[in-house]
Write a structure and sequence with these properties.
The complex is a heterodimer. By secondary structure, chain A is α+β, with helices and mostly antiparallel strands. Chain A is about 55% helix and about 10% strand. Chain A folds into two domains: about 180 residues, Up-down Bundle (Four Helix Bundle (Hemerythrin (Met), subunit A)), CATH 1.20.120; about 100 residues, no CATH class. Chain B is mainly α. Classes of the chains: A alpha+beta, B mainly alpha. The interface between A and B is large, with 66 and 54 residues.
């Protein structure tokens, strides 16, 4: 390829390094090999997710019930709409990237600049959406009770619709206050305390006849098991241990804590890739503006970061499928 | 200069006049596939909830559509279509082989552990 940047004087010398059997420059080939190794890293994570899911195949959270929020549309159940939007943004920024590469082949500096800029914007929108998605996930929505065995009990009304703790539990006076570093031993502190105690939830449940408990276990039809009224009261009194609001690495109101762990780890790792991709894109963007590649008469650097950027998009396609669809 | 783009997709069924045009064509295709996925994911048609080879048919459809998308991203956005066969195989075969192997092992093991909990003596449902 004439896009090779440096001529080493070995052209045509088959045994002196002049032979290019892959017909790709060193940098591009190495980017491909890096992508292979990174793909293996990601598939390791996703396969581990699959492992945990198969291990708890009858009790895994249903993604449609977890990711239902869209910014500015409060209180509406819109599963997958926002994440579909995020996917589209990332594919779109992939398109602008490949258009930048194409413009680079034609040595069209102004077009490369515009398309690189749009790519960066797309990446930023995606990372921002990811942050919002995390914030919503961490904050939680309905709240739940965790049992001694670490299972999650959620609340539904008689029609099977989810009921939030705030709708039927009354918070009383709490004597227990959050331990902070400033008012105790300086190195001991704890996270935010839940709004309610288990006793208050039990009182609330007793006072509302129309509220039932839903366990993690999936029925044959793929819905969560709903307990009868007596079973619900018995279960919560016998096994209820902690109130869970939202999700973190220890507890998760949506179901198995592993789900939250993998969500944070895999989307976090992917989000970090997008972030570093944006940073690299910005560096290349400034190089384009400064005319570095114009002087080289060669835009292969754009092509190389393009490969990385498409790879990030490629990984997202899989994360989207295995976290949100399957 | 890499002007030698192959401008056909779907094995020559659709031909494009320029590389730019091909990019937009692939974008349209990927958007259609994603839309199908999202619509199926929201409505979950009842006939597709039957099980086939240990998984719901719907999930198989999702996985196949994902692989289709991955193919077009790699082949047309990353220009794998224009690379020589040796490079293509080095990248794709290595990754595909190792990933299939890893997935098989981990899912097999996960299913086994589920059986142990389900039918064995270990209890965790309390």
């Amino acid at each position: 390829m004439s896009t090779t940047v440096v001529n080493t004087g070995t052209e045509g010398k088959a045994w002196g390094g002049g032979n290019q059997p892959l017909n790709a420059s060193y940098g591009k080939m190495m980017m491909w090999f890096f992508i292979v190794s990174d793909a293996l890293t990601f598939s390791g994570f996703l396969a581990a997710y699959g492992f945990s899911r198969f291990k708890f195949i009858d009790a895994w959270p249903i993604a449609d019930e977890v990711f239902t929020h869209v910014p500015f549309l409060h209180g509406q159940e819109l599963p997958m709409i926002y994440v579909a939007f995020m996917t589209f943004v990332l594919i779109m920024s992939s398109v602008t990237m490949v258009l930048a590469v194409d413009a680079g082949h034609h040595l069209n500096k102004s077009k490369v600049t515009i398309y690189m800029f749009l790519t960066i914007i797309g990446g930023l929108i995606f990372v921002g959406s990811q942050a919002w998605e995390w914030a919503t996930f961490i904050k939680g929505d309905y709240g739940a009770i965790q049992t001694k065995g670490g299972n999650i009990l959620q609340f539904v009304d008689t029609d099977g619709r989810r009921v939030a703790l705030r709708d039927f539990v009354v918070a009383g006076e709490h004597e227990r206050v959050q331990q902070e570093q400033k008012n105790g031993i300086w190195f001991v502190s704890e996270g935010t305390l839940p709004t309610y105690t288990v006793e208050e939830v039990i009182h609330g449940l007793e006072a509302h006849d129309n509220i039932l408990i839903r366990t993690q276990t999936l029925t044959e039809h793929g819905h969560k098991t709903v307990l009868s009224r007596e079973e619900s009261l018995k279960q919560i009194k016998l096994n209820g241990k902690a109130v869970v609001e939202g999700a973190n690495l220890h507890v998760n109101e949506y179901g198995s804590p592993l789900f939250a762990d993998f969500f944070f780890f895999i989307t976090g790792f992917h989000g970090f890739h997008v972030f570093s991709g944006v940073v690299i894109n910005i560096i290349i963007f400034f190089n384009v503006i400064l005319g570095t590649y114009e002087r080289r008469k060669n835009y292969e650097m754009v092509e190389k970061v393009g490969l990385y950027w498409h790879f990030v998009d490629l990984v997202w396609v899989f994360v989207f499928t295995f976290f949100y669809l399957v | 200069m890499a002007h030698a783009h192959k401008l056909e997709i779907f094995r020559g069924l659709v031909k494009f006049k320029s590389n730019t045009q091909k990019i937009w064509g692939v974008l349209i295709f990927l958007t259609i596939v994603t839309t199908i996925e999202v619509v199926l994911g929201i409505y979950k048609p009842e006939p597709l909830m039957a099980h086939f080879l240990g998984m719901k048919i719907l999930n198989w459809i999702f996985i196949i559509l994902t692989l289709v998308k991955a193919y077009y991203i790699t082949w047309d956005f990353m220009h794998m279509r224009d690379e020589v066969k040796a490079l293509r195989r080095m990248v794709v075969w290595t990754a595909v082989f190792l990933i299939i192997y890893l997935i098989f092992i981990l899912l097999q093991e996960g299913g086994y552990i589920f059986e142990v909990y389900d039918k064995g003596f270990i209890k965790r449902d309390f």
